Amino acid sequence: MFLQLESRDGRVALKIDGGFASLQIEGAQILQLPVTEERTLTRQRAAELAALGEEHGLVLFERSSPAARELLREAGVPFASTGGEVFLHAPPVHIEWPGRLKTKWPAGPAIPSPFAIRASRVPRWLLLNVGEELSFRELSAQIKLSESMVSRTVRTLADDGLVEVSFDPADARRRLVRLRKPGPLLDAFERADATRRYRQRTWEVGARDVEGALDRLERTAKRQRLSYALGGLAGASLILRAVEPATVDAWIDREDSELWIDALGATPARPGPGRVNLRLMPDPFVLDLAARIGRARVADRVQLYLDCRRAGERAIDAAEAIRSEMRW
What is the pTM of this model? Predict the structure, then answer.
């Protein structure tokens, strides 16, 4: 079989021909390996190859299960698929390509969206820290996700051209992720968020206006030691003075919803002056990103932007102001 797989920039190529695989970087051959071909790589066959170590060289296959590939990866056995997925660890060289045609063959469960509830911590953090470069392990610690989930999410984003992944020149095993152009990633995040349905309800809390509602929220949070984050126009109004909200939008932990309602003495109501919209945050981690502005806790800029975009025409100016402030 003849096969040539290349990196996006064309600098790195893996050529397979005549039973051998050669790795070339900028036209220079770096190493050569014998090839073992497996049309369909099963988990059992992968275990056998993993037990042999690197004796068989690089494993080439058309189809495989995720578990089979993971076995080879854990054993450090290099492999490549005809769809473009490559794993090769030969210090100081380390290559992992997700594969341009990886969806051509059945390969178990689909990869979760990078904007799913927990996975979206990755794009959220990158948007809040544009230009910073972290290893997968460092990012994992920052957002409190497993390194494997961070790796899968980043690879999906990179495959869509939304983030950049590189290897540390001092350690080829250390992968780095960086966001240089935030606009496309923010737009993709917004499209995904537009399809999500959040649970919320409007409450009367005994306040006559927004200021009174904010005061009730803050005093209740302190007294009951509860977390919250102002969102939407209410949060934006503490950053952009021209914004005038009619009601207060507050994100809370769904586990605390009953306690909030009891502590506020809240009764169901229609939207109006001094009313509070309590929104249940699917991922409590987002509440940890809130920052205090004045006497209230305000959601991170990504959440404020998404909230304002969902609010329609009356919040367009606020959303665009946030985008301009963050240079997205």
Answer: 0.67
Distance between CA 85 and CA 79 in Å, rounded?
8
CA–CA distance, 165 with 201 (Å, rounded to integer): 41
User: Is the CB of residue 304 less than 8 Å from the CB of residue 322?
Assistant: yes
The contacts found for 47-53 with CB under 8 angstroms, 24 or more apart, are: 47/71, 49/75, 49/77, 50/74, 50/75, 50/77, 51/75, 53/77
Q: What whole-number distance in Å separates Cα of residue 63 and Cα of residue 45?
A: 12
Q: pLDDT tens, 186-243?
A: 999 999 999 888 999 999 999 999 999 999 999 999 999 999 999 999 999 888 876 7
Q: How far is CA 5 from CA 105, 143, 213, 255, in A?
A: 18, 33, 60, 49
Cα separation, 62 vs 8, whole angstroms: 21
Tokens describing residue 254: 């769904």
Instruction: List the one residue out of 143, 188, 190 whose CA is nearest residue 307.
Output: 190
Are 99 and 79 spatial neighbours (Cβ–Cβ below 8 Å)?
no
Produce one character per residue of 190-209: b if its CB has 16 or more CB atoms within 10 Å, e if not.
bebbeeeeeeeebbbbebee
